[in-house]
Amino acid sequence: MNPRTLHLRDADATDALGAALARTRPPRAVVHLRGDLGAGKSTLARALLRALGVRGAIRSPTYTLVERYPLGDGGEAWHLDLYRIADPGELEFLGLDGDEARLWLVEWPERGAGLLPAPDLRIELAIDGAGRSAVLQPATATGRAWLERLGETREVAADS
Ligand SMILES: Nc1ncnc2c1ncn2[C@@H]1O[C@H](COP(=O)(O)OP(=O)(O)OP(=O)(O)O)[C@@H](O)[C@H]1O
Ligand SMILES: [Mg+2]
């Protein structure tokens, strides 16, 4: 399946994409969020978590590497930021292999190479004028179905 490219004209558009991803998400998925510093990875992850019902502060996992949020259906969403990881072995130390995680949102996944679950969906964000571009690339059947549902949402259908 071809990647899908969206233009996100402002941070509200990034929030809207996060909300649409939340509404259409599969029961279990791994998302890798790539892009340079300031590309909007955390903005998208936060919007997704909010739309999943997470209340209160959504802390950046920059130092803790992972923040875990209960999802109400018994599962958890795990938000990781591996920018500051010194050695991928730190991930093993965190014991991130439970099945509680229904949704993984991983910033800087390239720094956890080999120790993270394979992604269903890769999202590559980049600065694009005053806004951002988002390239969504599914990597599994789960990711492909997710992207198809996403394409039917008003936020994403309007872009193309
Ligand atoms: N579509 C957009 N258009 C313009 N600005 C945006 C857009 N999306 C997010 N931003 C802004 O970009 C800035 C950086 O975003 P964010 O912290 O999410 O980046 P990041 O990719 O997580 O960076 P880092 O790798 O440093 O953690 C924020 O001020 C955010 O509001
Ligand atoms: Mg970030």
UniProtKB/TrEMBL annotation:
CDD domains: NK
Identification of the protein by name: tRNA threonylcarbamoyladenosine biosynthesis protein TsaE
Places the protein is found: Cytoplasm
UniProt cross-references to SUPFAM superfamilies, sorted A to Z: P-loop containing nucleoside triphosphate hydrolases (SSF52540)
Family statement drawn from the similarity comment of this UniProt entry: Belongs to the TsaE family.
GO biological process per UniProt: tRNA threonylcarbamoyladenosine modification
Main location: cytoplasm
GO cellular component, one term: cytoplasm
Keyword Cytoplasm in record: yes
Keywords: ATP-binding, Cytoplasm, Magnesium, Metal-binding, Nucleotide-binding, tRNA processing
UniProt-listed Gene3D superfamilies: P-loop containing nucleotide triphosphate hydrolases
GO terms assigned for molecular function: ATP binding; metal ion binding
Tagged with keyword Cytoplasm: yes
